[in-house]
């Protein structure tokens, strides 16, 4: 699939904002200056800026231009449904995925309830750590119903399960229900993550559905407390 012209510019601007090239409360160069800088049209720049505004990186203020917002911590969208691989592009940080556990299991009572399946169903279990700039700070525990995802490999899990499901299997991932809780760190958290003395961990529970409203995946994404803010950037609709 051919990428549009404005997305790479958006990603580059995100990196520059996160590096501090453009600091919070300062304004970005004008549309004309950015068009010259990236050797592209003002329309392409406008679309890239629109994406920055939608994702909470800038606020467009009349008479001032595009003002940079505070993005010191790594931002994880609460309302969006994106894979870690997709987030890597906007992070501008060195990242790595390490698979600790992979295979087929029969769901216990807890998973039967979470995935709305019975004990006869086979479920893929994938346990992965996300390493960001040399620190393992996210533990992802994914459970996928084999009936909907018949084939999976460790190599796919090291890349992007979402990309494989959508591009290779041809299924459309549509929406997720999310629950965010703070729990005490488990032994598993301590053995896999660089916990740095923290007693608690932020857990995002995702119930992920296909286009026909079939629940096919349950994920627990366990985040170290100090590294993340969870963002739902809401804009008021003016009628």
The secondary structure category is: alpha+beta
Uncertain spans, ≥5 residues at pLDDT below 50? none
The fraction of residues assigned to DSSP E strands is 25-35%
State the total count of DSSP E strands: 10
Number of domains: 2
The biggest beta sheet reads: 6 strands, antiparallel
CATH names the topology of the largest domain as Chorismate lyase
> How would you state the average pLDDT, rounded?
86
- Write down the secondary-structure element order: HHHEEEHEHEEHHEHEEE
Estimated radius of gyration: 20 Å
Shape, per Cα inertia axes: globular
Q: Count the helices. How many?
A: 8
CATH architecture of the largest domain: 3-Layer(aba) Sandwich
Which CATH top level class of the largest domain fits?
A: Alpha Beta
Distance between the termini: 36 Å
Spatial strand sequence of the major β-sheet: 4-5-6-9-8-7
Please bin the fraction of helical residues. Answer: 25-40%
> CATH homologous superfamily of the largest domain - what is it?
Chorismate lyase-like
InterPro entries: Bact_HTH_transcr_reg, Chorismate_lyase_/UTRA_dom_sf, TreR, Tscrpt_reg_HTH_GntR, UTRA, WH-like_DNA-bd_sf, WH_DNA-bd_sf
Organism: Bacillus carboniphilus
Protein name: Trehalose operon repressor
Domain HTH gntR-type: 3-71
Characterise the protein shown here.
This protein has helices at 6-19, 31-37, 42-54, 84-91, 109-115, 154-158, 161-169, 187-192; strands spanning 58-61, 65-68, 74-77, 95-105, 123-132, 135-145, 173-184, 200-210, 215-224, 228-231. With 239 residues, the chain is an alpha+beta fold. It folds into 2 domains: 6-68, Winged helix-like DNA-binding domain superfamily/Winged helix DNA-binding domain (Arc Repressor Mutant, subunit A), CATH 1.10.10.10; 74-231, Chorismate lyase-like (Chorismate lyase, 3-Layer(aba) Sandwich). The strands form 3 sheets. A 6-stranded antiparallel beta sheet has the order 4-5-6-9-8-7. A two-stranded antiparallel ribbon has the order 1-2. Helix 1 (6-19) crosses helix 3 (42-54) and helix 2 crosses helix 3 (42-54).
